[in-house]
């Protein structure tokens, strides 16, 4: 192999690595979405649809919003006659009338939709 070809191959390899590095760092900085869903359980089970609660510039900011929503739900349901159980991603409230309410919050990249694929218009 001539020195010119060796130099050309090393240069192409360096450019390829630089492109891959930039692409991976751009992907890591995608936006994040805080999703919420609620369940109300009594004699029959009902589930609320998954909904977008808020958006954040990165995962850490989304996690902060998640903790705030969970704390807000805890404070809301702790008033009155409910027994409240709190976890990292949900608040479960058991009421004296037998109703159980679960409010769940979770963070996902903006490229992921937990509702599944959209239906085709055909």
Structure description:
The protein has helices at residues 3-28, 59-78, and strands at 32-41, 45-47, 51-56, 83-86, 90-94, 100-109. Mean pLDDT is 80; it is low at 19-26. A hairpin with a 3-residue loop joins strand 4 and strand 5. The protein is built from 2 helices and 6 strands, in the order αβββαβββ. The relative contact order is 0.17. It has 2 domains: 1-30; 32-109, no CATH class. By secondary structure, the chain is of the alpha+beta class. Strands 1, 2, 3, 4, 5 and 6 form a 6-stranded antiparallel β-sheet that branches.
* Shape assignment: elongated
Structural class: alpha+beta
Supply the number of helical segments: 2
Q: Mean pLDDT, nearest integer? A: 80
Number of domains: 2
Structure summary, number of beta strands = 6
Could you tell me how far the N terminus lies from the C terminus, measured between alpha carbons in angstroms? 58 Å
Poorly predicted runs of 5 or more residues = 19-26
What is the CA-based Rg, rounded?
23 Å
Largest sheet: 6 strands, antiparallel
Q: What is the helix content?
A: 25-40%
Order of helices and strands: HEEEHEEE
Strand content: 25-35%
Name the descriptors.
122 residues; alpha+beta; 38% helix
List the helices and strands and how they pair.
Layout: H1 3-28, E1 32-41, E2 45-47, E3 51-56, H2 59-78, E4 83-86, E5 90-94, E6 100-109
Antiparallel strand pairs: 1-2, 1-3, 1-6, 4-5, 5-6
């Amino acid at each position: 192999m001539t020195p010119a070809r060796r130099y050309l191959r090393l240069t192409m390899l360096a450019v390829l690595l630089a492109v891959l590095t930039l692409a991976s760092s751009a992907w890591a900085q995608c936006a994040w979405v805080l999703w919420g869903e609620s369940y109300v359980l009594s004699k029959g089970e009902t589930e609320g649809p998954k909904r977008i609660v808020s958006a954040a510039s990165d995962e850490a900011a989304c996690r902060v919003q998640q903790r705030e929503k969970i704390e807000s739900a805890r404070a809301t349901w702790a008033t009155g006659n409910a027994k409240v159980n709190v976890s990292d991603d949900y608040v479960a409230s058991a009421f004296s009338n037998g109703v159980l309410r679960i409010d769940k919050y979770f963070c996902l990249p903006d490229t992921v939709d937990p509702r599944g694929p959209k239906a085709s218009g055909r």
